[in-house]
Design a protein that fits this description.
It contains 14 helices and twelve strands. The chain is α/β, with parallel strands linked by helices. Helix 1 links the parallel strand 1 and strand 2. Pfam families: ECH_1 (PF00378).
Length: 343
C-alpha cells in the first residue's frame, strides 16, 4: 500500500518551534531517510502548536569565536556553524519526493524564508502570516532565499518583504502566487491530509514526482550556488559584528520588566560541582549535585535560564573549607527560595 505522505513536525511548541542545533540535525536525518522511503509520495513539513516557526532560538545568545580570532578565523568559525543548515537545504533541493510545506501558523525569520522557495506545494492556515526581520538584526536572507523570492513573487515585492521586514498575511502571499491553498485553522492538519489523499486518489504518485524532477533539475546548480553565496554573505556579516550587537540589544529589550534570572556553578578543585538555574520569582529551577563539571554543563544552564544576566564565580573546595559560611549561605539561600515557592 502506498503511503500518502510522511509528515515531519517542528515539535517545540513551548519555544514556538524555534530552531536549534538538535532540531536541525533531526531534520537532516529525516529528509535523508524519507528520500529513500519506497512508498512515500509526499513529504510534509509542518509545525505543532500555534506557530509554524519563530525562527532561530536565541535564548542562549549567539555563539561567538574566541576574542583573539582574526577576520579569516571568524568567518571560518561561522561557515562551520552553517554546515548543518547547508546540508539540510542541499537535502531539500535534491529531495525526490513532493515536498509540501504546511504553515499551521505564523512563520518568522528562517521559518518564513527557508522553505517556501524550495517546497513544491505550500499550504497555510487562515490568519497566519510571514515576516523576516533580517535587516533589523544585521543579517541577510539566508540560504538562497533572496533569488528564490525574487523569482517567485517579483524583485520589488521580494525587496519589500526581505529588506524592510514587511509582515505579509498568507492571503496576500496567495495572491502573489507563493501559496497554493489556504485552509481554516481549525483542523488544519486533518484538512491537509484530506487534500493530499484527494490528489493521490486522482493522480499517479510517480508521475507527480517525475514532474517535480523535470521542473527542479535545471534549477539545481543555481540553487546550490545561491545557498553558498548566501552563507558567505551571512558569515561576512558576523565578521563585521553587526548581528551579535543587534541580537544583544534585542535581548536587552526583551528582558526589560522580566524577572531576574541567572545560573550558578559551585565547583570543587576535584572536578565536581553543584550547578543550577535560579529565577527571581520561582526560586531554584534546577539543581545537579556532584556532577562532573564541563564547559557543556555550563552552556546547558546558560541556555536553560530564560534571561541569563549573571553567573556566579566558581569556588575551589579549599576556599569553601576556609570560609564554610560562604558555601552554606549561598547554598541555603536558593533552597529557602525554592521551598517557599513550593508552599
Amino acid at each position: 500500500m502506498t503511503s500518502i505522505f510522511d509528515p515531519q513536525q517542528l515539535n517545540r511548541p513551548e519555544s514556538l518551534n524555534a530552531w536549534n542545533e538538535i532540531l536541525l540535525m533531526d531534520m537532516v536525518a529525516a529528509f535523508r531517510d524519507l528520500d529513500e522511503h519506497p512508498d512515500t509520495v509526499f513529504t510534509v513539513l509542518t509545525g505543532e502548536g500555534r506557530f509554524f516557526s519563530a525562527g532561530a532560538d536565541i535564548k542562549g545568545g549567539i555563539e561567538t569565536p574566541p576574542p583573539e580570532s582574526t577576520a579569516a578565523q571568524t568567518k571560518l568559525f561561522y561557515m562551520r556553524k552553517f554546515s548543518r543548515e547547508m546540508e539540510l537545504f542541499r537535502s531539500m533541493i535534491d529531495h525526490r519526493k513532493v515536498f509540501v510545506l504546511a504553515l499551521n501558523g505564523p512563520a518568522v525569520g528562517g521559518g518564513a524564508a527557508w522553505f517556501e522557495g524550495i517546497a513544491d506545494i505550500v499550504v497555510a492556515a487562515k490568519g497566519a502570516y510571514m515576516q523576516v526581520p533580517f535587516s533589523s538584526l544585521g543579517l541577510v536572507p539566508e540560504f538562497g532565499a533572496a533569488p528564490t523570492f525574487a523569482r517567485n513573487i517579483g524583485a520589488r515585492r521580494a525587496n519589500d518583504f526581505l529588506m524592510f521586514g514587511r509582515k505579509c498575511s498568507v492571503e496576500e502571499m496567495e495572491s502573489w502566487g507563493l501559496i497554493n491553498r489556504i485552509f481554516p485553522a481549525e483542523g488544519f492538519h486533518e484538512r491537509v491530509r484530506g487534500f493530499l489523499k484527494e490528489q493521490l486518489a486522482v493522480n499517479d504518485g510517480k508521475s507527480m514526482m517525475e514532474t517535480k524532477r523535470l521542473q527542479n533539475a535545471p534549477l539545481r546548480g543555481e540553487r546550490i550556488l545561491a545557498m553558498f553565496d548566501a552563507a558567505h554573505a551571512l558569515a561576512e556579516r558576523f565578521v563585521d559584528g553587526a548581528p551579535v550587537e543587534r541580537f544583544r540589544k534585542k535581548t536587552e529589550q526583551l528582558s526589560k520588566g522580566q524577572p531576574m534570572c541567572f545560573c550558578f556553578v559551585l565547583r570543587s578543585d576535584v572536578g565536581y560541582s553543584e550547578c543550577g538555574a535560579w529565577r527571581e520569582d520561582k526560586g531554584l529551577l534546577v539543581e545537579l549535585i556532584n556532577r562532573p563539571f564541563t564547559s557543556e554543563t555550563a552552556s546547558y544552564y546558560r541556555i536553560m535560564s530564560p534571561i541569563c544576566i549573571w553567573t556566579i564565580n566558581t569556588y575551589p573546595s579549599k576556599a569553601c573549607k576556609s570560609n564554610p559560611r560562604l558555601w552554606r549561605t549561598t547554598h541555603s539561600r536558593w533552597h529557602e527560595r525554592s521551598a517557599a515557592d513550593r508552599q
